[in-house]
Structures are given as C-alpha cells and as structure tokens.
C-alpha cells in the first residue's frame, strides 16, 4: 500500500491518499491540544498508544456488528482505513457528569446520570465546535433524519459495548466523542476511540486515565495512556 500526498492535517492526526481511491492512511501524532487549541503540548508516544488502543477497540466493535472505517494497522503510527467522507458532526455520549456538562448545567462532576445523554456538536474549529440540536442538523442539511437516527442507534450500542468492555478491565467509561462518515451511502464509525476522545476513570480509585490529565496539568499523562493500553489485553 503506497502512502501518497497528505489530504488533511488535524490536531492529532494526518490523513493521506493511497494508490487505492477507496483507502486512506491515517498517521497518529503526539501533538496534544485542549480548550479549542488554546493549550498545546506533546504527549510522548501518544500517537503510538492511541493507534494501538483504537485498533483493539475497533476490532472488538467490528466483531459485535458495528461498521467502522478500520481496515488494519500498518505500523506503530499508521493505520489503513476506508476512504469515508466525514460528517461534520461530533457525537458526545455521556454516562456520568464531567467536562462541559458540569460547567453548562452545574451538575457536580462524577454524578451518575439517570440515562445516557447524547449531544451533537458542529465539527468546525473556527467556531469552537458549538453544540447543536437535531433541528440545526436538519436546517443546515448536515445529515438526513435517517442518518441521524442511525448515528444515534450506533452511538448507544457502542456505549453499551464499550462500557462493558472497560468495566471488565476495572475502568469506568464516563463519556466519549464519536465521529461518523459516509462510505458510499453507508453510515460508519470513523476517527478514533482512545484516551484522547474518552473520559476513563479507574473504577476503584476514580483516578483519571485520559486526556484530562493533560487538560488539568495533573501529571503522569503518558503513564495514564500506557495504563489504558496495558489493560486492553486483560
């Protein structure tokens, strides 16, 4: 598989064309950002760990019937994926109050929500990825009603599968972000699932094992990412 010109560079990844128009290569970087890019830094070997963590989680989800863009990991930092057209939506799946939810609504961090909350954000860095609702999605023609219904169905199923997977490894899945894309007419899971995109707490101690350690200057950031990777094999 020949890696060709770069199509796009984001905060954490680069996307490249290949010699097959139906396939892309994604390269995971060590760059870290927070607060809409206001805080920047580097997490040593984050790209390697996130690539391997995503591989494990996407393989598990595929085996449980969730369609994803994942094809195979090519190297420590590179993964081969289907050439999807990313939908300009971020889907936030919340099980426990944390992050922006606590700031916006005053719910104490760590409060178990009575049911899983799904939220949508417009994927637009220049606007700060603002929160939107299904009427906005319809009015802006970001996705059809049928696609939104499919995204919600997949998001809840993914939450069920990931929550059980992490629980078996002593980890609480607090919340996480998903992105979806179109592969032809099919809605499929894209992007990554990693400590960059999830809030993951040790089930026994409540210790944060995710990007919040970088956001909040808690230290031991690399160790937290490594701990998540280590537990995937348990």
From TrEMBL:
Keywords: ATP-binding, Ligase, Nucleotide-binding, Purine biosynthesis. Pathway: Purine metabolism; IMP biosynthesis via de novo pathway; 5-amino-1-(5-phospho-D-ribosyl)imidazole-4-carboxamide from 5-amino-1-(5-phospho-D-ribosyl)imidazole-4-carboxylate: step 1/2. It holds the Pfam family SAICAR_synt. GO terms for molecular function: ATP binding; phosphoribosylaminoimidazolesuccinocarboxamide synthase activity. The keyword Zinc-finger does not apply. The keyword Ligase applies. Its EC number is 6.3.2.6. CDD domains: SAICAR_synt_PurC. GO terms for biological process: 'de novo' IMP biosynthetic process; cobalamin biosynthetic process. It catalyses: 5-amino-1-(5-phospho-D-ribosyl)imidazole-4-carboxylate + L-aspartate + ATP = (2S)-2-[5-amino-1-(5-phospho-beta-D-ribosyl)imidazole-4-carboxamido]succinate + ADP + phosphate + 2 H(+). Residues 7-231 form the SAICAR synthetase/ADE2 N-terminal domain. Signal peptide: none annotated. Belongs to the SAICAR synthetase family. This is Phosphoribosylaminoimidazole-succinocarboxamide synthase. It comes from Acidaminobacter hydrogenoformans DSM 2784.
